Amino acid sequence: MSALYIHIPFCERKCFYCSFAVAIGQEHRMDQYVSALLAEADLYQRQEIKTIYFGGGTPSMLTTVQWARLINVLKQRFIFSADCEITVEANPENLDLEKAQQLFDLGVNRISLGIQTFHDEYLRYLGRAHDSFKALSAFNDLRRAGFKNINIDLMYSFPRQTTEEIIRDVQTVLGLGSEHVSLYTLTVEPNSKFYAQKIKEQDNQMQGDQYELVTALLQESGLGQYEVSNFSRAGFESRHNLNCWTGGNYIGLGMSAHSHCDGCRSWNVERLGEYLKRIESGGSSQEGCEVLAADARLREALVFGLRMNRGVDLGTLEENFACRLSQDDYQKIQTLSEQGLIVRQDNRLQVSDRGRLLLDEIAVELI
Questions:
Q1: pLDDT tens, position by position, 334-362
Q2: For the residues of 111-156, what is the DSSP string, one character each?
Q3: Which pLDDT does position 86 carry in this prediction?
Q4: Do 232 and 340 share a domain, yes or no?
Q5: CATH code of the domain in which 361 resides
Q6: What is the DSSP code (8-state) at residue 93?
Q7: Total number of domains in the chain
């Protein structure tokens, strides 16, 4: 790969999906970071954008002035499609009616609200800065501002969490009437504070039972499952995430951001100081890149496709990537089908209800 290809990897006639990483955790450097984002965006100006996702955990920490500057300049750099889906991740403690109204007026039309749980005990356990009252207040502020597409992040499987507590959390979400729910379990990562405290995750059987309970409650109330961890009302699926899951192209701006174009992946440096230094000196923020072979892209598309309820058409995948799975791969698929983990009808593959509980194992088997 040449440096020019790494730095400017997209051709002008394609339409891309853009992911802006704005979680920096250092408030005093936010103005500097916004300037760096806009400088990096200059590499891609006049690209057409179908979705924008302001992610990374704490974009809502930006001030109203910073939001106005960022979005208004991005509108000058890029061509937003007429129905562009613009999502902002927000934490309840950083959101009030004034900021919600400004985001709406700037053209943001989707909010992903990191509530996690409505039980204050578990919010303290997570180290979150909001309580259940603030979570409800933030959601209501978004509605008053005019938002009609709100996702709620919901977490379950805390140590010693009861079934009744899980049900109350789900009922509270359903009572709010959000259009989308993203579902997570508490995960204890190595070197995390939970790991240091020797917190143990719920056993697989318990997590599986809780997952099936939450899934059933959400679907019974009109939030259809379209991906293993995502539920929405009809027409409110996350278009940004669907693009990523189906192997689409996207530009990533900001520290730790990833980009993808037709099998070429690149990623930016992880540390804020290094990112700012590179951008401000006129250098590249990219840390590395890789080019996936056609068969690797086919396998990846198969695994991501199986995460979605609609599944995948294997014949279409093989045609798109101009290669075929091996006979050994087909045998693995047949074995998974015989085990009741994959449902196969001609070329269409879908995971079964039981298979959704074992997706990691299925992915390992197929990749």
A1: 999 999 999 998 889 999 999 998 898 99
A2: EEEEEE-S-HHHHHHHT-S--HHHHHHHHHHHHHHT---EEEEEEE
A3: 93
A4: no
A5: 1.10.10.920
A6: G
A7: 2
